[in-house]
Known about the structure:
83% helix; Growth Hormone, Chain: A; mainly alpha
Amino acid sequence: MKKFINSYYTGYKAFHPDARRFLVLSFLQSFSGNIFGLVFNLYVLKLGYTRDFLGTLGAIPGLTIAALSIPLAVFCAGFSARRSILTAMGLSLAATAGLSLFTGRAPLMFFSVVAGAAGALMAITSLPLMASLTTGADRQKLFSAQYASSMIAAFLGNLASGWLTALWAFSFCGGEETALAYRLTLLTAFVLLAATVPFALRLKADRDLSGGGGAAAFSGMNLGYALLVLSPQLVVAFGAGMIIPYLNIFFKAGFDLPVAGLGFCMALMQLAMATGAMIGPFVVGRLGRVRALITFQTLSIPFLATMGFSGLLLPTLLAAFARTMLMNAGWPIYSVFMLDHFPAGQHQAISALYTTAWNLTNSAGAKLSGRLQMDFGFTLPFLITIVCYCAATLLLSRKFLKEDSKKAVAPTALKEELE
């Protein structure tokens, strides 16, 4: 374990200074964002809205990200990473304040759109930024370290969210988990997010991440080849949309947990994500990227089934931890896998295309799940997710498994083989 931790610490010191700054910023944003995210769905339901509207509201940020990612990648060509990140943070602050203070249907939907715009700008900036700051094996280490640190922050944020809500409920609401208690937690998250702005100002990332291409990067891309590379993760995205946005509802409604207990359960999920991200590079070193992705996804399926159908809190919680660890171990691996199939000048373009497609499919799953839950509970959404995980694993096996038998595959050569 000591050697494992030391390898990450040594890697952190070796990263580019902007890479280290971005890691710290990601940690702080994830902490405040998860304080907000744990109780927001519960807050909306407490305001008297139905789960169907909650599904609509949950789908809006993803649909906005899908709609804006490509236009922003074209419009922001020539923007520095620092400028893009600061703009995204400004939008995120506006969205967090608006969602915390306004209760009407239209304002909630509007500020969800603003949150989606912030997410789109951050999404098309973060992956190309990290790729531009690293090469070779260091790239996988940075991607995994960034994901792991964000999940550790999410773990702490979920714990803090549960404790804060319990504190506000005890102090101002007679011990009841009222809309006011939830709102005070949301406003606390806003204050903490505002406190991260000075850290963002320290970034010196002044490079243009579009490769000078803008629209030309998209026009020069083979769309069919790009969709082939993206397809396994898009199937996973649809399945994830059926379940992941509603995990807090699943645990609270299914096991009647108080908010502090819910915060603990959700915090464990973030800890599982961090654990998975940290072990990912070591599994890649032994098996190769594609075999690692296939292994993680295959092993997660029985845990997903146990999570959905055991009906008992402890087995469900343990299975949820294992599923979350395994599936999220693959996310930073897939990110590097995706970028390495395209030249550096197309990294922002493929990130925008991936962000658009992922959020479209994920939002479609979230919207459908909100409707299905009203008629079938979580039974059908879990079954659909299991089918999606199986299909994604099959796609990886059939289309990309041969990559692991080669020391290096140039993007153009692989493109010709897959065509």
